[in-house]
Automatic annotation (TrEMBL):
Region described as Disordered: spans on this chain: 114-177
Keywords of the record: Nucleus, Transcription, Transcription regulation
GO CC annotation terms, alphabetical: SAGA complex; transcription factor TFIID complex
Compositionally skewed regions (Acidic residues) per UniProt: 137-146
Localization terms from the record: Nucleus
One record GO biological process: RNA polymerase II preinitiation complex assembly
Protein name per its UniProtKB record: Transcription initiation factor TFIID subunit 9
Signal peptide start and end residues: none
Domain of life: Eukaryota
Originating organism: Liquidambar formosana
Length: 177
């Protein structure tokens, strides 16, 4: 073993030999400590579950069956098996029956239709309509013919005359210089 292996605990030596057997030659020394922490945490979780199973079965102590059950429950909840090859092939056949959407032909990267992209207009501005010259004259005439007993209210506007016009602007890809 290497020079610093004598002062390592037995578990650290085992982790180091496992890494060497897997062909891992270069690693940081902290890797051994991280594997040890993972290893200890896993063992504590399994033994805690085994103790719960043992208490549930009204046993005085944990036995081999409790540990096996705890490990199996960890495996069932931690790892999942991939689906069978036949299932994947059937899914691929069904998915490939649907043709891809047509793309915009042009120079550069092909893109989907503009309505399916995120660069379409995404806001609207409300612009009030301006009064025409004829409407302004009618307003002046109406002000002159107002009843003197009922004075006009300053700043009052007719809502039917100022219906906002909605305008959308597409976002430009390049800004003019």
């Amino acid at each position: 073993m290497a020079d610093g292996d004598e002062d390592l605990p037995r578990d650290a030596k085992i982790v180091k030999s496992l890494l060497k057997s897997m062909g891992v030659e270069n690693y940081e020394p902290r890797v051994i400590h991280q594997f040890l922490e993972l290893w200890y945490r896993y063992v504590v979780d399994v033994l805690t579950d085994a103790q719960v199973y043992s208490e549930h079965a009204s046993k005085a102590a944990i036995d081999c069956d409790d540990v096996k059950l705890a490990i199996q429950s960890k495996v069932n909840f931690s790892f999942s098996q991939p689906p069978a090859r036949e299932v994947l092939l059937e899914l691929a056949r069904n998915r490939n029956k649907i043709p891809l959407p047509k793309s915009i032909a042009g120079p550069g990267i092909p893109l989907p239709p503009e309505e399916d992209t995120l660069i379409s207009p995404n806001y609207q501005l409300a612009i009030p309509k301006k009064q025409t010259a004829q409407a302004a004259e009618e307003t002046e005439e109406n002000e002159e013919s107002i009843d003197p007993t009922n004075p006009p209210q300053e700043g009052r506007t007719d809502l039917t005359q100022q219906t906002p016009q909605r305008v959308s602007f597409p976002l430009a890809a390049k800004r003019p210089k």
